[in-house]
Fold this sequence. Notes:
This protein is of the alpha+beta class. The chain has helices at residues 3-19, 64-73, 102-110; strands spanning 22-23, 29-30, 33-34, 37-38, 48-55, 78-86, 94-100. Helix content is 32%, strand content 29%. The chain has a 5-stranded mixed sheet. Strands 2-3 form a two-stranded antiparallel ribbon. The protein is globular, with a radius of gyration of 14 Å.
Amino acid sequence: xxxxxxxxxxxxxxxxxxxxxxxxxxxxxxxxxxxxxxxxxxxxxxxxxxxxxxxxxxxxxxxxxxxxxxxxxxxxxxxxxxxxxxxxxxxxxxxxxxxxxxxxxxxxxxx
Length: 111
């Protein structure tokens, strides 16, 4: 298994476990089940659909197209871009960030 696949799999597993989401088969490559992990808007007061991006590099580009795609593929859940920067090839050290819309963050803060 390639390092990129290992990074992606570990990140998706983290998102699902940490946020109580379910991983989507095939990293969301099915039209009716996109994104990498998603919560359930019928069960969770604030439900996100996560598109995970992981790297061993120094940067991850975020484009307007990527944001638009995440919004479209969230299919009712709130879109979130989860970024993970790995510090070693053993994938034991990393830093996580999650990009969400400001309105969603404000709502969470008000709750």
